[in-house]
Write the structure tokens for this entry.
Amino acid sequence: MALFGSLAERLNHIFSKLTKRGKLTELEIKTAMREVRIALLEADVNIKVAKDFIAKVSEKALGQEILQSLNPSQQVIKIVNEELIALMGSANAKLEVSPKPPTVILMCGLQGAGKTTLCGKLAVQLKKQGKKPLLVAGDIYRPAAIHQLQVVGGQAGTEVFERGTQSPVKTAKEAIEHAKRMGYDTVVLDTAGRLQIDETLMQELENIKKNVEVSETLLVVDAMTGQEAVNVAKTFNERLEVTGVILTKLDGDTRGGACLSIKAVTGKPIKFIGVGEKLTDLEPFYPDRMASRILGMGDVLSLIEKAQQAITEADAKKKEKKMRENTFTLSDYLEQFEMMKKMGGVSALMGMLPGAKLKVREEDIDEKKIERTRAIILSMTVAERENPSIINSSRKRRIAQGSGTQIQEINQLLRQFDQAKLLMKHMKNGKGKFKMPF
Amino acid sequence: MGLFGKLFAALKKTKDNVATKLRMLFSKNKLGDEFYDELEEILIGADVSVTMAEEVVEQVKAEAIDGRIKDGDFVTDLLKDIMQDILDEAPMPEINYPCVIMLVGVNGVGKTTTIGKLAHYFTAKKKSVTVAAADTFRAAASDQLSVWADRAKVRIVKHEEGSDPSAVVYDAVSSAKAKKTDVVIIDTAGRLHVKDNLMNELKKMNRVVEREYPEASFYKFLVLDATTGQNAVSQARAFDGAVDLDGIVLTKLDGTAKGGFVISLCGDLHIPVIFVGTGEKMEDIALFNSEEFVEAIL
Ligand SMILES: Nc1nc2c(ncn2[C@@H]2O[C@H](COP(=O)(O)OP(=O)(O)OP(=O)(O)O)[C@@H](O)[C@H]2O)c(=O)[nH]1
Ligand SMILES: [Mg+2]
């Protein structure tokens, strides 16, 4: 966890006295690998998997020339990172399509992994690709599970096929007949969560696979899973021949080492990751990002990509020009807030920055305060936004009333805005680092 | 089988493994680095946090300096004592009536199911119970709780999906006060502990109970899934920071996961484990017993 600093920080500490160039020695590698081991274990990589991994990496690292551009700790991280990426395989977000429709996708996993929500997410994704999915309610045990799928299906705009608490095998067969009749090309079977040691329920899944032709068997795993991930993945894979894995709840602060364990024991690709409760919160899996997350180095790449999505290039050019000409106004400031919102809020963004996790707490970034700032700017006239210097005390009183805030807050905002402008001037001159203006 | 008997049976196999492993290891390697590494790995393998595992092993090493360690079995017993001492550092609170119990936790850990079990647990003790469906967010959450309320034959307070969860809490607490209900149990929506806005929503519900029903004892329990790994500590820290936790409910112990992270929660955060969940039926709940828990880990 971030509490102990990232692997990079710890390795830097070890190697801080070491400035020499040349090859990495055996002792250096051994010392460094102890730290790597701790980083992996703290990330929930299974102990055996971590051991094998370290043995392999140590061998690779031994006698490697330290590159001119890197220091020893960067060199170690580079090797570890590359090996992690190689182990996790390539990005693979493709779902198998059956030559004879409908394509059947079977979801399976432990209780509470997030299968039902995921069914909705897949439906949304499939529809975006122009497919016609049908969701099938196969969890006949958990109270209100069928209704939950119906609500999710409603949100996704997809039909949900259910037959109450009749045997899921029978329901699956009927659902496929229904799909054929109605022209659905993809059938997603939701199933009840089950422990891998529950013989009866594991047989139920085997029976579904015996009775209908399944193209994809997706194992859904909570990204916060610990050492147990290995047992779960192994048994599900052995009994059901899993074809792919989906990791859920990666919007938390888990390092997600379970992912490495699962990949190591099943060899099956990780196809998607779930990153939120909304039905659009499904993303492809990128091994390089996962690697830096497991090593505790932050999901910098995701952050960059999110930023890119939120700011179109044209927008960015316009802003840049304004900054250059120093005509950045409160309206632009407001726009920035809107953009932040689009990117999932400040806390979501900060969560992805390395080392920021524990330092940035709600006391520091108060989403409420940001909302108030927005309200203040929205209560200003256009003239005031373009030229804040005209805001005198009677204008301030009016704005405070309109936004339901205090005069002090308005003063504070104006001060902050001045600072932000100053900061931008510095940035333009290549001085100073980027900093959030609040 | 008794409640803990079931848990025992599930974990016995592993238990034998560890004891045998330690015995073997001891005979071939005495007390070298390899031995301590192995010890540490046994603990981490049960999802004990890495730092806690290191601490426990340090304590074992300290005993070894005194030359007291003679064989593998001694180490097993020593480990048990150390861990149990840590678990007992966080004493279980007495439950007083009338009380309000609010369950919080990340998505899918077993909050709603646990409420069904708790409702049953308290009615069996001849207490009157009301459950509050304050998860107004997740699809069909209040229907799920309604089924449990029916099963346990207790009253439920619920509003429409999408309504303000604090309003549900307010209603439940007010009516419990008027009806002199012994126990109110509040279900909350699953939320990841890093989402400030959702944590603030929880704080608001917390304030409503404190303000509206100060005469009741108020317990806030974090529900943790035993399958969780090192992240459990981060979850506990965050929820404790938001609502000041009184205890933990550890669910899904009927699987093969051990939930070793609770040792850190008791030792470092001083949050006691109150209940354990061992299945999906109404009866599958028991009070936590540190001795049996440690026994099950090793
Ligand atoms: N095997 C087992 N399953 C459990 C246990 N407790 C809960 N479950 C199952 O875990 C799944 C999720 O339980 P819920 O009670 O819906 O969890 P929740 O925390 O309320 O979930 P959200 O409200 O969606 O965040 C269900 O399938 C439950 O049957 C337990 O002790 N053992
Ligand atoms: Mg629930």
Q: What stands out?
A: The two ends of chain A are 26 Å apart (CA to CA). The first helix of chain A runs from residue 7 to 15. Residues B 111-112, 135, 141, 187 surround magnesium ion (ligand 2) (CB under 6 Å).
